[in-house]
Amino acid sequence: MEALVFDRFGGPEVLQYRTLPDPPVPPGHVQLALRAAGLNFADLHRRRGHYRLAGAAPHIAGYEGAGEVVALGDGVDGIRLGDRIGFADVAFANATRVAVPVDRAIPLPDDIGYREAAAILLQGLTAQYLVADSAPVRAGSRVLVHAAAGGVGQLLVQMAKRRGAMVIALASTPRKAGIAMAKGADHGLTYDGDWIAAVRGLSDGGVDIAYDSVGSTLAGSLAAIRPRGTVVAYGTAGGDPPAIDPRRLMEQSKAMVGGDLWDHLDSRAGRLARADALFAALRSGEIALPEIEVFALSRGADAHRRLESRGVTGKIVLVPDAAG
């Protein structure tokens, strides 16, 4: 198989495109011929050495994608050769052959293509649990979305609006704020100036929910919510968050919760139900697919550079070179 790998941590230049042995197919697994893989900021963090990695070098990047079943491990039931499968949390995904545990395999309906699945599964399932589980959005909720022009941010805006919320979008530039407003946000702000005061002014004293993927803005999010409001911290794209004194929460009955997708994908049945709901949201128009930028797997370093540029407002998808 061909794979995008790195032997040491560093910038995009450490990525190499190599031929490696095909992975084994353990019991309870299926092997996919990869058709598309989604690129995420977590891939950048892994390449830089911010996360602990399993196994020894060379490390294969990636963990989200879709492909066709070409081999079955012992004990596999309910999946056949030729089935179309997506996944959101399987390591070593940036390779032309990927071993996927059955409990993490998501059958793709006929109307969801490989590239579309790789572009929506991880970010869509993330936005879904944030608005449904971490801090449920209801009609009349006042919601703040950080990094609102990013992949999860755009989906949060759309999902919150469909649930009847008033949405304030925060982004790094006026152009990106405009992208979030085009997705349905009621107001678009940038981080320039006193954005906390601006949020409080637009929400009659503070929002009910702040979804914060930036991290370094966590104290500001806490100040921007109203008494009995909730901050949902689910990322650190802008740097490590400050320490929060719990007395700040006690004084106004404010809440802060953490969010991680893997804790919500805790069973095969639950995973399939969440995926079905996500696909239904696409069909109904509740959410729209992001714009997809396609890179050949051999150009993985260029794809990483593109994502690091912070100019991407859609989704980067890697495809095997033969796919073009």
Description:
This protein has 324 residues and is α/β, with parallel strands linked by helices. Strands 3, 5, 6, 7, 8, 15 and 16 form a 7-stranded mixed sheet that branches. Strands 11-10-9-12-13-14 form a 6-stranded parallel sheet, sandwiched between helices. The chain has a 3-stranded antiparallel sheet with strand order 2-1-4, with no helix packed on it. The chain has 2 domains: 2-121 and 265-323, Quinone Oxidoreductase, Chain A, domain 1; 139-259, NAD(P)-binding Rossmann-like Domain (Rossmann fold), CATH 3.40.50.720. The chain has helices at residues 41-48, 114-134, 151-162, 174-182, 195-202, 218-224, 246-251, 261-264, 268-284, 300-308, and strands at residues 2-6, 16-19, 29-38, 59-60, 65-72, 84-87, 97-101, 106-107, 142-145, 166-171, 187-190, 207-212, 225-233, 255-258, 292-296, 315-319. Helix 2 (114-134) packs across helix 3 (151-162). 31% of the residues lie in helices and 26% in strands.
Question: How many structural domains?
Answer: 2
Summed over residues and divided by their number, the pLDDT gives a mean of 94
Please report which band the strand proportion falls in: under 5%, 5-15%, 15-25%, 25-35%, 35-45% or over 45%.
Answer: 25-35%
Given the helix and strand composition, which structural class is it? alpha/beta
What is the fourth-level CATH superfamily of the largest domain?
Medium-chain alcohol dehydrogenases, catalytic domain
Number of helices: 10
Could you name the ranges where pLDDT drops below 50 across 5 or more consecutive residues? none
Q: Categorize the overall geometry.
A: globular
Q: What is the CATH domain class of the largest domain?
A: Alpha Beta
The Cα radius of gyration reads 20 Å
CATH architecture descriptor of the largest domain: Alpha-Beta Complex
Largest beta-sheet characterization = 7 strands, mixed
Total beta-strand segments: 16
Order of helices and strands: EEEHEEEEEHEHEHEHEHEHEHHEHE
